[in-house]
């Protein structure tokens, strides 16, 4: 089998597979469908990745190392990817930020996933992720990354599993021999909950310009104790107002940091990444929220009708056929939010899934690709 | 397909119909809740087998000058195309595997090894045929795709003496017939639409059919060098085998004796349960081996397919047991017979409907008289129209 991979690993082979001739031979299914018989990782259309290493660094996290295929175009430290895994026959997609340096030499991606016991994907990965597994990832997304040219002073603040994008920034900066000042203020319950504890100690010892401040909310052996406050900020870096600050963590931490920066009128120096946990409220019959039609940019206040009806009322002209859930003509991707099947009452809480707008009504805020 | 003078619909009370609909809804909910890994594994396994058959078929036909390779190549490629169209394409394009959320198995992304454009299919089949199943005047399939006389509700015309020929031709060129279906070209012949009206459909056809023909009739033959004519013939043979098989399977679904057609009026304001009811009355199952089930894309369970078009088709077999039991309890006819019987019944219909209906109602002489007097009646009808009288159309539908 490995000899057969010459088709996907040699330059000639790749040129053939990318050619319109190969596409014409493989019509209508595309080249991928046949090449994956030899090399399941290869794809022209999809970024596939092989899990090469699985580590459980803390009791409630799992760290995956991924070897992406040639479709992967890299990322900027701080950006996130959408990771798709198949659980019980259904592809589930979640956002995670790579924690590795963007200049990592072997080109692999490290994802550290905090396990949410009430969730679906993270407990599944904790229990089932094994080397050799194939997953799909999206191109890197998001504006949360360090601008070029680099600022002379950088303040990183994170809490819990929000450490991953700022860890990537820290590793990238040290990799690149950044000569400015880096201060990293990290919040955790106790020292056992700091996912990269050993590595942080190493970095601190190795690089003069890096200062690491550990704040523990449930223990008193850290550099700081309790939740974020202005005092913490000053203790971490008294020149914080001159630094560019990058923040990622749970909502209460984000809110209190934002409040301090707003009060001082330096919000433009604060860059943040929100990782809202998926909503799991049970929807009520009362129509609430906003329906966003992402492709067209239209918006409407949810009035409880089906998404198809609301799209039409908003002046859009989406495809439809039977309007009773049989024909699939109207199927669109729900990007975020919760929908209810009006025929069965089933609730769909997943993001990035196909739904039938003719029989789906929004429950609260929903964004759909129409 | 026959028209019942008194629709069986009257036999059940509205309350019974609703109760029957609820039982089917409950059955559906139970299956949907169970969809998962098993179904994903099934479709991936079928796709793997189909790909192997396809690669083997193409490779064998490369050496098509060698008769055993030709025979084996045509067999493998025919099976590949049949499985690709029936068990994979038809079913995936119904959204049966959309629950997997895998772009490769999502109806909107899928395309098949056939000349009909996927978008065109989603319209003519998934929407029109499945929503308005067997409603004469709405479901193009019910009236023989516009080129056959398959129900008495299509008025007789001397052209239908060729009904068996049309049927044979449509089966032979089935992939082209379905590809052209959305043109509704009989409307063009009758002057109801212009050449320009057909432009979007024509563009889709050229794009999709062009690619298919290029692959099967130019590129793969060219790769065989001097063996090109053999590869060409082998590919054409595989397409023909697929056409004959696919059309036979489809004919068995709605054309056998006993499958009912409906009028637009009687299906107005139809409830969800009545829609289920019509699907059962208008469809017919055929029995056969497991292989027949796979090669027919489980359309051997046409009734179950019409009830639940978006549930993975290989599950129809288990669903059929319950549907049959429900039908028995409500006294609803469940049309099921071995494949050869259903096909025989279809061909009987094709021949029977080629002659005027009076042949059967009033005797052969009356039929002959109706046929011979057709030109005069046509003239009378035209005169009547000129005089402003309301005249029933006596032309072919």
UniProtKB/TrEMBL annotation, chain A:
Tree of life domain: Bacteria
UniProt-listed InterPro entries: 2Fe-2S_ferredoxin-like_sf (IPR036010), 2Fe-2S_ferredoxin-type (IPR001041), Beta-grasp_dom_sf (IPR012675), Cbr1-like_FAD-bd_dom (IPR008333), FAD-bd_FR_type (IPR017927), Flavoprot_Pyr_Nucl_cyt_Rdtase (IPR001709), FNR_nucleotide-bd (IPR039261), MRET (IPR050415)
Transmembrane annotation, as ranges: none
Alphabetized SUPFAM superfamilies for the sequence: 2Fe-2S ferredoxin-like, Ferredoxin reductase-like, C-terminal NADP-linked domain, Riboflavin synthase domain-like
UniProt KW Metal-binding keyword: yes
Domain named FAD-binding FR-type: residues: 44-147
Record's keyword terms, sorted: 2Fe-2S, FAD, Flavoprotein, Iron, Iron-sulfur, Metal-binding, Oxidoreductase
CC cofactor: FAD
Coiled-coil region list: none
Identification of the protein by name: Ferredoxin reductase
Species per Swiss-Prot/TrEMBL record: Nocardioides phosphati
Lineage: Bacteria, Bacillati, Actinomycetota, Actinomycetes, Propionibacteriales
Automatic annotation (TrEMBL), chain B:
Name listed for the protein in its UniProt record: Fatty acid desaturase
CDD domains registered for this protein in UniProt: Delta6-FADS-like
Residue ranges crossing the lipid bilayer per the database entry: none
Coiled coil ranges: none
UniProt organism field: Nocardioides phosphati
Domain of life: Bacteria
Pfam family, one: FA_desaturase
Domain Fatty acid desaturase: 65-336
InterPro entries for the chain: FA_desaturase_dom (IPR005804), Fatty_acid_desaturase (IPR012171)
């Amino acid at each position: 089998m490995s000899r057969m991979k010459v088709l996907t690993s040699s330059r000639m082979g790749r040129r053939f597979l990318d050619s319109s001739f190969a596409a014409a031979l493989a019509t209508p299914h595309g080249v991928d469908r046949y090449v994956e018989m030899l090399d399941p990782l290869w794809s022209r259309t999809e970024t596939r990745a092989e899990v090469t290493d699985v580590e459980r660094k803390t009791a409630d996290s799992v760290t995956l190392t991924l070897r992406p295929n040639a479709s992967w175009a890299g990322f900027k430290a701080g950006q996130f990817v959408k990771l798709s895994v198949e659980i019980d026959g259904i592809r589930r997609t979640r956002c995670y930020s790579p924690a590795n340096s963007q200049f990592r030499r072997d080109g692999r991606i490290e994802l550290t996933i905090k396990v949410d016991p009430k969730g679906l994907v993270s407990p599944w990965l904790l229990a089932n992720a094994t080397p050799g597994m194939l997953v799909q990832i999206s191109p890197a997304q998001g504006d949360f990354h360090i601008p070029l040219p680099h600022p002379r002073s950088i303040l990183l603040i994170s809490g819990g599993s929000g450490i991953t994008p700022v860890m990537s920034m820290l590793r990238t900066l040290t990799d690149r021999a950044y000569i400015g000042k880096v201060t990293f203020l990290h919040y955790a319950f106790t020292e056992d909950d700091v996912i990269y504890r050993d590595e942080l100690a190493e970095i601190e010892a190795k690089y003069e310009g890096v200062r690491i401040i550990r704040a523990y909310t449930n223990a008193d052996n850290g550099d700081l104790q309790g939740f974020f406050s202005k005092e913490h900020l000053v203790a971490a870096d008294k020149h914080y107002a001159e630094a560019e600050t990058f923040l990622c963590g749970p909502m209460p931490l984000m809110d209190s940091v934002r409040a301090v920066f707003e009060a001082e009128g330096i919000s433009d120096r604060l860059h943040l990444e929100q990782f809202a946990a998926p909503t799991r409220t049970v929807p009520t019959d009362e129509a609430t929220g906003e329906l966003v039609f992402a492709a067209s940019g239209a918006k409407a206040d949810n009035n409880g009708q089906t998404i198809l009806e609301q799209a039409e009322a908003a002046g859009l002209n989406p495809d439809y056929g039977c309007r009773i859930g049989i024909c699939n003509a109207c199927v669109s991707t729900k990007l975020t939010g919760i929908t209810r099947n009006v025929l069965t009452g089933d609730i769909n809480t997943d993001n990035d899934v196909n739904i039938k707008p003719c029989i789906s009504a929004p429950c609260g805020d929903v964004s759909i690709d129409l | 397909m026959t028209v019942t003078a008194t629709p069986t619909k009257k036999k059940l009370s509205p309350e019974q119909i609703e109760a029957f609909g609820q039982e089917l809804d409950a059955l559906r909910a139970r299956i949907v809740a169970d969809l998962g890994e098993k179904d994903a594994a099934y479709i991936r396994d079928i796709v793997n087998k189909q790909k192997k058959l396809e690669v083997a078929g193409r490779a064998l036909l490369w050496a098509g000058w060698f008769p055993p390779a030709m025979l084996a190549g045509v067999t493998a490629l025919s099976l590949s195309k049949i499985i690709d169209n029936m068990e994979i394409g038809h079913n995936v394009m119904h959204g049966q595997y959309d629950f997997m959320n895998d772009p490769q198995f999502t109806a909107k992304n899928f395309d098949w090894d056939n000349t009909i454009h996927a978008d065109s299919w989603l319209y003519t089949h998934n929407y029109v045929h499945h929503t308005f199943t067997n409603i004469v005047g709405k479901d193009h399939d019910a009236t023989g795709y516009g080129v056959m006389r398959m129900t008495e509700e299509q008025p007789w015309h001397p052209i239908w003496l060729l009904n068996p020929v049309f049927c044979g031709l449509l089966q032979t060129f089935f992939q082209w017939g379905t590809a052209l279906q959305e043109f509704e070209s009989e409307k063009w012949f009758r002057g109801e639409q212009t050449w320009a009206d057909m432009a979007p459909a024509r563009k889709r056809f050229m794009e999709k059919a062009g690619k298919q023909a290029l692959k099967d009739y130019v590129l793969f033959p060219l790769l065989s060098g001097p063996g090109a004519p053999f590869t060409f013939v082998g590919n054409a043979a595989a397409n023909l085998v697929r056409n004959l098989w696919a059309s036979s399977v489809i004919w068995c679904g709605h054309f056998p004796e006993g499958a009912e057609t409906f009028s637009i009026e009687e299906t107005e304001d139809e409830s969800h349960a009545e829609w289920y009811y019509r699907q059962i009355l208008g469809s017919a199952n055929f029995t056969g081996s497991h292989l027949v089930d796979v090669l027919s894309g489980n359309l051997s369970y046409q009734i179950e397919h019409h009830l639940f078009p978006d549930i993975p088709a290989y599950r129809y077999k288990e669903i059929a047991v319950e549907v049959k039991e429900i039908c028995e309890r409500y006294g609803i006819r469940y049309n099921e017979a071995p494949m050869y019987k259903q096909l025989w019944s279809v061909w009987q219909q094709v021949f029977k409907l080629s002659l005027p209906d009076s042949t059967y109602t009033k005797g052969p002489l009356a039929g002959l008289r109706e046929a011979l007097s057709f030109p005069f009646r046509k003239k009378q009808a035209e005169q009547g129209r000129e005089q402003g009288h309301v005249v029933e159309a006596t032309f072919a539908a």
